[in-house]
Model the fold of this input.
Amino acid sequence: MELQTGSEKAGDDTALRWRALNPQIAAAGLASAESRLRRKVADLSGSRRNLDELSRVYSILSTAHRSGDAIEVFASPAEAALLIDEAMARCRSEVISAQPGEGGPAEEVRPATARDVELLGRGVRLRFLYRESSLHHPSTRSHVSRVTAAGAHVRTSAELFGRLMVVDRSVAFVPHHRVAGGAAVVRDRSVVTLLREAFDHAWGRAHAVEDGRTKPAELSDLHRTILRLLSEGARDETIARRLGVSLRTCRKYVAEIFEAIGAESRFQAGYLAAQRGLLK
Done:
């Protein structure tokens, strides 16, 4: 119905009257209002989901900061990753990390590369230890090349003691004992110091890397001679006779070569020596 005003022909009095309208006109207006309401409800639902996620993140981080526990264990990989990202965002001076794995897929490594380059840009010192063989993995080699070019210090070793990250000498992350991707967060200063000392010990025995490649090891002429004989398949007894030394002394030299170039076997020693140009 529509209310109208108008003049009657028979007199001067103004009359009010109702006129019927098509109900579809009102229905169209109602549909428009319903559409606006649905959009509003959808927006509110999205805001609610965002708030729920922020509440979860806040709960994890605030609990971690308030906790006085020396060690906290997080079985959820998502929670562990969140805590690591938060520690990296707060980092001001140094990150050390030992990575004994072979490297992940490129889509997982790229965000870590961007984060590390950003840290270096802020003046944070980065020291990374990798297993020697991991540099054969394309994504790891690419990551190492980019971060060393940006100023990170990277070394490799044939064997590492385990996965470790220490941020600003105050908090350490070690793997969960059962759940892949989970982590134990260590804040006790004595334990963190011990973990740093273990890292520094391994660092001192590792080999520096530049542009994704390990620097040639510095070997004496005697070591190079033994390495060449090893690559030719000579046995320890033969090498000892050739050099005029005891078998025990020869094996000591072989062990020194293995340690210097990060080899675990004669085959690997020959391969690494050829790769690094040590047989020339």
Observations:
- The mean pLDDT is 81.
- DSSP finds nine helices and eleven strands in the chain.
- The chain has three domains: 21-66, 68-214, 221-275.
- The domain at 68-214 is CATH 3.30.870.10 (Endonuclease; Chain A).
